[in-house]
Amino acid sequence: MSALDDNIAKLAPHLARIGETGFLNHIGGVAQPAVSGAWFETTSPTDDSVIAHVARGDAHDVDAAAQAAKAAFPAWRDTPATTRKRILHAIADGIEARAEEIALCECWDTGQALRYMSKAALRGAENFRFFADRAPSARDGQSLPSPSLMNITTRVPIGPVGIITPWNTPFMLSTWKIAPALAAGCTVVHKPAELSPWTARILMDIAEEAGLPPGVWNLVNGMGEEAGRALTEHPEIKAIAFVGDSSTGSAIMAQGAATLKRVHFELGGKNPIIVFDDADLEAALDATIFMIYSLNGERCTSSSRLLVQDTIADDFEVKLAARAKAITVGHPLDPATEVGPLIHEAHRAKVMASFETAVTEGAAIAAGGCRVGDTGQFVAPTLFTNATNDMVIAQKEIFGPVLTAIRFSTEDEALALANDTPYGLTGYIWTNDITRAMRFSDGLEAGMIWVNSANVRHLPTPFGGMKASGIGRDGGDWSFEFYMEQKHIGIGTGPAQIPRLGV
Ligand code: NAD
């Protein structure tokens, strides 16, 4: 039996089980269908087969979930932090115990390749452990004495929060948001992406088994415009943590205005990788390929714009094209697969439309530029050359395995091109000149910059973007800043010196 057959066989019982039950919502500790009784279907991008039906929650389900989160909030807020810590570690244990199942289901649901998703499952457990350990210090504050006051600060959880996640790496991203919210003492209503609901359901089950009290974490499946919108408009939801498209972020901001929603946005990107001619070019080539073609290019931090110095561009682009053509496109459950199918037919059509745009704009297609097979949503890893930064293919997020290469001659020109985009999520700089690396990092408009490195996650560091790529940061203490309210308490330390009125 091949490794692929073996993995398909391992997935089968999970598929059979979910085919029977469907994906239920989970409100106040009870798994349940939508109040309206409506369902929608979710399919696998590998062969377009139906995975299961999904409860189609709307404003009624969101209201029930928000009320459950509100009711559960005081007790969860007042639960000793050491208890919260223990429960979050138990969730991490549960994730590790089911890591293989999570990875297989995530691959089938999203089309992401197993080689990445097995790590993503374990990263979800790391997220819970990291914030579990921080829960006991979440309320820590400062002492800021003044001549007449002992001023102290403390933090309290903001209340029930809404978490809305996208389809690209849903399990990892859900844990990244939910873990700090729970550690801070907030209760949660989670609305996963309608295109990939599977692992949110597994995560919910794990949390229940780990002893999370009913109502602390609620799950409502549904469409963005229905369940998602209702969550952002609900008066009992105090904040929205959102990961997704920049235009959806704008919509959420407008939807949340009436209830003065606090928002945290992790949005799109058109991230530059800048390769200077003094760089370690073999390593830069590896990084360029990895950062755009891994995770199907469906990755907010993908380096979708290559800025390459003209002195090395010919050779670099030839090698890049050869490597892109050699990438293994295949079944997501095959351990050999490097690029799997894109999430959905509509998304594949959007990605493939960029091939036509590239030609119309006068760029060249040096690799890919076509569909692979006629079943499933596979496209070939694609490289556009002869491109300029003002082209649509250099400005719009394509969110697929598609790289646009642009040439520059001077450092100043490279910086201007790198910043000439609405986005500002990440940047990758390849140079062996440390002074230039520092200078360039300083000028680059991006929330996260890696020099001579790929994107290596380190949980204590701030994660997030500038410009149209986001508002706010996750990671370290930054997550708690979002999920908590800062309080100042001033205590008189001497005789009260209050101006006396009316005497
Ligand atoms: P999307 O914005 O279409 O959907 C994301 C979520 O928002 C889904 O759950 C959807 O149902 C919901 N939604 C849609 N309309 C809504 C509305 N009006 N009100 C409330 N909720 C609504 O994004 P997507 O296509 O699922 O994901 C891809 C995008 O996510 C890309 O732009 C990518 O760059 C971005 N992303 C960013 C990061 C980051 O950390 N910056 C990480 C992953 C993905």
What does this structure look like?
- The protein is built from 16 helices and 21 strands.
- It is an alpha/beta fold.
- It has two domains: 10-267 and 469-487, Aldehyde Dehydrogenase, Chain A, domain 1 (3-Layer(aba) Sandwich), CATH 3.40.605.10; 272-451, Aldehyde Dehydrogenase, Chain A, domain 2 (3-Layer(aba) Sandwich).
- The strands form six sheets. It has a seven-stranded mixed sheet with strand order 13-14-15-12-11-17-18, sandwiched between helices.
- The mean pLDDT is 97.
- It binds nicotinamide-adenine-dinucleotide.
CATH topology of the largest domain: Aldehyde Dehydrogenase, Chain A, domain 1
Number of strands: 21
Integer average pLDDT: 97
Q: How is the main sheet built?
A: 7 strands, mixed
User: How does the overall form come out from the CA principal axes?
Assistant: globular
Over the alpha carbons, how many angstroms does the gyration radius reach?
Answer: 24 Å
Instruction: Give the percentage of residues in beta strands.
Output: 15-25%
Number of helices: 16
Number of domains as seen in the coordinates: 2
Level-1 CATH class name of the largest domain = Alpha Beta
CATH architecture of the largest domain: 3-Layer(aba) Sandwich
Please report the distance between the alpha carbons of the first and last residues: 94 Å
Helix content estimate: 40-55%
Bound molecules: nicotinamide-adenine-dinucleotide
Task: Give, in spatial order, the strands making up the sheet with the most strands.
Answer: 13-14-15-12-11-17-18
Tell me the CATH superfamily of the largest domain.
Aldehyde Dehydrogenase, Chain A, domain 1
* Unreliable parts: none
The secondary-structure class comes to: alpha/beta
